[in-house]
Amino acid sequence: MLQKFDEDVLEQILSHLQVKDLLRFKSVSKKWNSIISTPRFVNLHLNKSMSTPSHHRIIMPYPKSFRAVDFHIMDVQDHLPRPEEAVGTFVGSSGGLICYLDKLTRRICVWNPSLRLSKTLDLNIQGSVSFFWFGRESSDDEYKVVLGIRSVVRKNTDPNLYAIRRITIMPDQDEYRNHIYVIMPFACVSESSTQLEVDHIYFSSSDEGTLFSGLVHWFAGSYRIKSAIGSIYHDAVFTYDLGGKTLGKLSTPVGLSSSTGSIGVIDGCLSAIYRVCGGDCAIYEFWMMKEYGVKESWTKMTSLSFGNCDDGLSSFSRLKLVGATDTGDLILCCAPDCQLLIYNVAEKKSKIVLSNGYGFARMYVETLVFP
Amino acid sequence: MAAETGTPTTLTLKSNDDELFSVAESAAILSVTIRNMVEDGCAGGVIPLDNVDGKTLASVITYMNGISAIPADEEKKKSYRDKFLSDKDFETLADMVLAANYLNMSCLMDAVSAKIAQVMEKKSVGWVRRKFGIENDYTPEEEAAVKEEHKWTFEGVETDDDN
């Protein structure tokens, strides 16, 4: 007979298991069931999952299911049934939960693919959702949805007015904490206590925001109307500070259009991938903002070309960063073909892992957190 | 207590079945429990480790010596840990995790926990009960209800007759 494991030791062991095994082992005994169910253990397990690369998965949407790709063997490991409510726009994947926004029914769905459970929330919003983000933020470990809602009632000459709405997802509870609307016309946004010289802002990209050091980042175009010489248009990255609840603006590399770009985080730096040439042979440039907030620190790291010059791959219209492997290879996904690629930066070689998906691939981790 | 430079200090550890082991202090203090005793100055004679048997302690000391011989290179340390644990059976791993916990050796604890979890993957509920010596305290109705709630997790589980 084994020595009795005390609860601490048992928790340590169980925290390394995957969700499917843990749910099954709830049947071992009442004590095991209660250990696996405590918020303390759920949190311990999530932290272990997030810090263990072998617990990370890549999830690729298909019409009826999602394919989960094992991070290490880079092969399809599981077919996850897609909940009926998980439709529409992808809002984010963070801390093991995935969020979708159905713009037609104005509902969001929060889904835990490891538990195979989801729940939905009616938004009761007016206007259209222009930019969005979902994530678990380390400052308070809460899951939040940030929605930028564009006011519909306006004249053509009016600036676009956006309201930011924060929703905190309360795991294990039926209630959602609904933060009050923060109406914030971008025209009044201040940057270092001076007003941004911006009259109109357009969020053209359908990308979810990217969290970096407590701020959510989106690409947007803006222009300032100058009465005499017309208007000056430029691309920018708009930010929302989750802590201070303030808005801000960052410059982008000169001469590149954000309409073909996407934002990500590479090697601990805010990064952007741009398509610089279309046609038969698409070329993508990878840029990094080496020093956060410093425009001059935008540095071109590498470029990647696809097209008929390269093993019969079609020219992709957009390329998005999904993540990075622990050996430093970049995991990328392209549209519209929805191919999942591994890109070795040093050797400039890419390999296709999955094809013909129905949307961009994303990362997620295994967790017991109830959506 | 300050070790004099050039003369490696040796500690004597005693298992709960009265086996004595000599180990270099520099390797032994990987255990926070032992390090605290050394720093408190109560490691002058024999250090009794009441929760660890001789067989397990011998193995832990092999690990202490092996890992402390590796310079600060986390990759190499990890591969040493993997190799060290690769041929250990479940019972040995179970003794090891309890020893690592008692001796407060977080890296070994984490590695052994991960290894045990790896062994538990896809295993049946019956297998876990046998290996962990757990008595099923569910009534048949309760057990059926818990299993029904997580029915899909019983797909692809290894058959119950393996050891």
From TrEMBL, chain A:
Any one Pfam family match given in the protein's UniProt record, by short name: FBA_3
CDD domains: F-box_AtFBW1-like
Domain F-box stretches: 1-44
Protein name: F-box domain-containing protein
The organism's taxonomic lineage, starting at the top: Eukaryota, Viridiplantae, Streptophyta, Embryophyta, Tracheophyta
From TrEMBL, chain B:
Residue ranges of every copy of the SKP1 component POZ domain listed in the record: 11-65
Entry's Gene Ontology molecular function annotations: cullin family protein binding
Pathway involvement of the protein, from the record: Protein modification; protein ubiquitination
Matches recorded under SMART domains: Skp1
GO cellular component: cytoplasm; nucleus
Known function: Involved in ubiquitination and subsequent proteasomal degradation of target proteins. Together with CUL1, RBX1 and a F-box protein, it forms a SCF E3 ubiquitin ligase complex. The functional specificity of this complex depends on the type of F-box protein. In the SCF complex, it serves as an adapter that links the F-box protein to CUL1.
InterPro entries xrefs: SKP1 (IPR016897), SKP1-like (IPR001232), SKP1-like_dim_sf (IPR036296), SKP1/BTB/POZ_sf (IPR011333), Skp1_comp_dimer (IPR016072), Skp1_comp_POZ (IPR016073)
Family statement: Belongs to the SKP1 family.
Keywords, alphabetical: Ubl conjugation pathway
Protein's recorded name: SKP1-like protein
SKP1 component dimerisation domain ranges (all copies): 108-152
GO biological processes: jasmonic acid mediated signaling pathway; protein ubiquitination; SCF-dependent proteasomal ubiquitin-dependent protein catabolic process
Record note on quaternary structure: Part of a SCF (SKP1-cullin-F-box) protein ligase complex.
Domain of life: Eukaryota
